[in-house]
Every structure is written in C-alpha cells, then in structure tokens.
Amino acid sequence: MKYFFTFIVFLTALSATTWFLSSHEQELARLFQPPTQQSRHVPTPLFYQTVGKFPDLEERPLLSSPPTQFTLELALCEDKPCVNQTLEQLEKKSIEAYFTPLNNQGRVVFRIRHGIFASAATAEAAKHSLSQKNVVSSVVEL
C-alpha cells in the first residue's frame, strides 16, 4: 500500500510537470535558444602591461572636499551621569544639545555640543546668544 501511494504521487508530479512544459513551450524555447551572432560580446584582450596603469595625479580630476562646518562645544564629561546631568541642565534653558564620544588615550570622553553651522560667523553668533543665557561655549571646526 505504501508503494502504491508513492507511485500515485509520482504520477501526479509527472503529469503536472508535463502539463507545465506543454503549456509554456514557447516561452521555454525562447529562453533556451542559443545566442545569435549579434548578441555575443567578445571582450577585448587585457595585456599585462596595461594592468595598474593610471593617469598621473595631475591629470586626474580632484574630488571636491566637503564644506567646512562648525559646532559649539559646551562641555566635556568623563561618564554618562555627567552627560545626562549636563543635557538636562541645557534642556531647562531651552538649549538643544548632543554628545559625541571621543577615545582619548584609552579613556572615553563625551563632548557636549550644540548645533552644526555652515560658517564660523554663524557659529560665533550662536555662541553670543548662548552667552546671554550664561552658557560658556567655544567654536569648533568639524
């Protein structure tokens, strides 16, 4: 009985495959036909002498460097509680700030910063407005 059911499953799979192939005969023939002479791409040979040949640096166009940006550094903290406390104090004064970690000789130091500015002049203006809120800061180039 076990072999009978195996045989029935085999016949069902065979008939389904035969039906699929006969109903999709044109698409399969198109997929598996050999490439025509026009569609064949013959690559040009690569000679050893050409490997690694690049134009001199003076001939290559230089990539433009990203524009210089500035930020205001408000504080340095050595641990996360200090960071959280400083950010809370700044938030009470309605000053948005963020922190960035810095690996300083194997120790992590957190820099508390405010804003990203396109020029030193706008950073200086923001520094002046922070000084009116009794917040000491320094302009830092990113």
Show the helix and strand layout:
Elements: H1 2-23, H2 25-31, E1 70-77, H3 80-92, E2 98-104, E3 107-117, H4 120-131, E4 138-141
Antiparallel strand pairs: 1-3, 1-4, 2-3
Description:
It is a single chain. The chain has 142 residues and is an alpha+beta fold. A four-stranded antiparallel sheet has the order 2-3-1-4, covered by helices on one side. It is elongated, with a radius of gyration of 35 Å. It is built from four helices and four strands, in the order H-H-E-H-E-E-H-E. 38% of the residues lie in helices and 21% in strands. A hairpin with a 2-residue loop joins strand 2 and strand 3. It has a domain at 70-141: Sporulation related repeat (Alpha-Beta Plaits), CATH 3.30.70.
